[in-house]
Design a protein that fits this description.
Cathepsin D, subunit A, domain 1, 2 domains, 14-stranded mixed beta sheet, 6-stranded mixed beta sheet, 20 strands
Length: 315
Amino acid sequence: MGPVTNHIHQFLAGIFFLGPLTLPSAFAGVVFHRSEIPIYAEIVKIGPNIEEHFFGVNVDLGLNKKTRLILDTGSQGVVLFRNISGALNEGNYPINIRYHGLEVEGHRTSMRINFSGVTRNVEVAVGDLVRTCCSTSLLEKFDGVLGIGSGGDLENPLSGFAPRWIIDLPRRSDRVGHLILDPRESELGLYTMLSAVSDTYRSFLVHGCLKSLMRQLEECHAIIFDTGSQSIFSSPATAGVKDILGDGYFMIRLDAKNAGPFTWNVNYVQGSPQQGQSASSSLFVGRLVLGWTAFRDFSVLYDYDHGTVGIRRRP
C-alpha cells in the first residue's frame, strides 16, 4: 500500500501551483489543435433558500454516458465521484482531497480522456464524497471535478491537450460559454498579460489591489481568479478587505506585465456564504480570490507553457 497523500484545497477556491514557469520542453514536438468545449451553468442548492452557480463541461471518459465535471480553476486534477466510477480500477495509492465544503476519499488511478477527438491518458482520483456542502444536489448535477488550476500531486488534465486555454464563462443571459483549447495567435494578442507573483510554488497568482471608492482604504494582495467561487473574499478574512467589500463600491487594480495597471469599478452586493472565509492551509494566507463574478466581465487566458495569466474585457 502506497503512502496516503493529503491535498488541502479550499473548495473550488484553491491556489494555482504550477511547475517551472517556463516549460517549453514539455510541449516539444507535440501538435495541438484549436477546439472549443461548451461550458454549462448549473444551479445547485447548497442550503435552505441558498443556491449557487457552478459551471461544468462534458468530458468523454469512455463510460458510455455523459460525464459532466465541475470546471474549477482553483484546484488541479480530475476527481471523480464514485457514483459514476465504481467500475474503474482504484490503483494502490490512497488519496484524500479536501476542498472547502467537500471532501473526497479514494485512490489514484489513470484513464483515457477525450477532448474534441483527441485522447490521452490522464491520472485521476476516484473516491467517495465523505463531506459535501450540497447534500445530494451536487451529485445530481455533476460527476466530479475538472481542476485546471494547479496544486497537489495530480497532473493538470489540460496540459496534454494544449499549452494555453481561454475561459469564457456563461453570462447570466447566456446558456453556454466556451473553454477554448490552443487559441490562435490572433486571439492571444487581445489579452493584457498580468504581472505574476513569483513565489515558492510558482503559482498563477497576480499582483493586485482593492480600493474603496467611498473611503481612503486600499488593500493589496496576491490575487487569483477562481471559477469555483462566486464571491470576492480574502483568505483569511482581513479587516481591511471586509471594510472595502462592505462599502459595496470599489475598484480592483491589477498590475499588467508590459503596460499600465488594469482597473475596473465594481458594484458589489454582499451575502454570499463564502464571503470572509478562512484559509484551510497556510498556502492560502494573504490571498484575494476573485470568484466567477469577475468572469462575467472578463475573458481569462491561462498560458500553461509560461505560467502567466491574461485578461480581456468581454464586449
